[in-house]
Amino acid sequence: MCCGNNDIEKRAELPDAVDMELIKDMCFFDPHVHMTSRTTDDYQAMADNGIVALIEPSFWLGQPRTHVGTFADYYSSLLGWERFRSSQFGIKHYCTIGLNSREANNEALAEAVMALLPTFIYKEGVVGIGEIGFDDQTALEEKYYRLQLELAREAALPVQVHTPHRDKKKGTQRSMDIALEHQLDPSMVIIDHNNEETVEEVLNRGFWAAFTIYPFTKMGNERMVEIIRQYGSERIMINSAADWGISDPLAVPKTAMLMKKRGIDAATIKAVTYDNAIAAFGQSGQIDPNDFANGMAINQSEKFENNSILRGGQQPRIAKGSIIIQ
Ligand SMILES: [Zn+2]
């Protein structure tokens, strides 16, 4: 065999079509997914599995940027081309705008980005300041986290907080302490990337607790089911945080399917995969569920600034089930 990937065990891990039937009437809102890094196939699969709306937080791109102009173009693409691309699959696209923690460590660049932010955060479809917070928990990360919390307070926008992978518990506590110091109401702050170690304190202090279902590193969805069993659904939401790394843009529907299989009731599943994200980020005044609850009209021949997602006179793609590519 020339392909090392024909291990039948691995194939068996693919979601079973019968299982996916369990969620066929459900709608999902993924409040954290980096679509800029994903393909049209991902959009199609997300739409096919019930994702009707999403939030794309601004983040770093895997490699540090060196010019402020690249931030301006990136923010513009989240508001323009990426929103258009999403609409072509019937998925409503929102975003959060901010300076991420990693790039906050380049002070000259961070200053220039801070000057740019007010020109983007008031635009239509911006549902929060994010994702901001700590990575290595440096002094510069703290400086720009604080400045952006002030910006969020002024703009009355929710804040989407990225918590660090290393020393997570301390970083999460510090993120909440600082948000309170800046007089943010915890109901306006979504603490992301929680785990079993952090969830209780986040909920007890009145913040929203988001969970990223991310293969191998953050949370597997079996652990997620147990957290839902223990804490219920109030102020909890699930996201994929799918990006340019090994990640899964179907993490939200797959976790809903698993919850259903494990006997979690439908109202709880809906709360953590749809309603709570809308309630939290809807405080921006930018989300009207009527825009997506019954699906969006799709016309893949539409154009954005003279460009469509169809290349070189392609026809809109409809049937994905065929092995024949025309
Ligand atoms: Zn992210």
UniProtKB/TrEMBL annotation:
Pfam families the UniProt entry points to: TatD_DNase (PF01026)
InterPro entries listed in its UniProt record: Metal_Hydrolase, TatD-like, UCP005295
Keyword Hydrolase on entry: yes
Transmembrane segments: none
UniProt entry keywords in alphabetical sequence: Hydrolase
Claim: Hydrolase is one of the keywords in the record: yes
GO molecular function: hydrolase activity
Database matches in SUPFAM superfamilies: Metallo-dependent hydrolases
Tree of life domain: Bacteria
Protein name, entry field: TatD family hydrolase
Source taxonomy: Bacteria, Pseudomonadati, Bacteroidota, Chitinophagia, Chitinophagales
